[in-house]
Write a structure and sequence with these properties.
The chain has 182 residues and is an all-alpha fold. The protein has 6 helices and no strands.
């Protein structure tokens, strides 16, 4: 990519997505720690990902009718706030299964808007002849973060605890926010 802003955004997105996948793994681990129930793990996973399936098309409509950069700023700030709440509750020992369910569902709703917006925004980052390159880089970012994030989560959970994953995820949003503001 020849555009500085596109490179900054994609670099920030890479950092943020690593944090997001750390949280996905840590959230599942937290649910198992709280409940020792595979059913509860399935419920939290469904709550987080069902809004993408059910609301993704609506999120695409919202993206098409909105300033994509502003909408992405909003979705990232809200996702960061949700991570902060999960970190604070976990670190303080006040986390409950119900809270994890609510936060997972809310994050799923945010992602139902964020994902189609991001995919559309990527195609607008560079010149028309760079769209294929931008989409390929976005795919590489998403795929690599799905490998790196869970690996880091396991190391963090084993060394410093689950709450660290939520905290680092919250901090990782700064990277994508800076990329969007560049």
């Amino acid at each position: 990519m020849h555009h500085r802003n596109a490179r900054l955004y994609l670099a920030g997105l890479a950092v943020s997505n690593v944090g997001t996948w750390m949280q996905v793994v840590a959230q599942g681990w937290l649910v198992l720690t709280l409940t020792d129930s595979g059913v509860a793990l399935g419920v939290v996973t469904a709550l987080q990902f069902a809004p993408l399936l059910l609301g993704g098309a609506w999120g695409g409509v919202v993206a098409d009718r909105s300033d994509k950069r502003r909408l992405l700023l909003l979705t990232q700030v809200v996702a960061c706030a949700l991570a902060v709440v999960l970190w604070a509750a976990t670190a303080s020992g006040t986390v409950t299964l119900g809270l994890v369910y609510v936060l997972a569902f809310l994050l799923g709703c945010v992602n139902a808007v964020d994902n189609p917006t991001r995919r559309s925004f990527i195609s607008e980052l560079g010149e028309p002849d760079e769209v294929a390159n931008a989409i390929s880089l976005n795919t590489a970012v998403m795929t690599s973060s799905r490998m790196v994030g869970p690996a880091l989560a396991v190391v963090l959970i084993g060394t410093v605890g689950i709450a660290a994953c939520f905290f680092l995820n919250a901090v990782s949003f700064a990277a994508v926010l800076l990329g969007l503001l560049a």
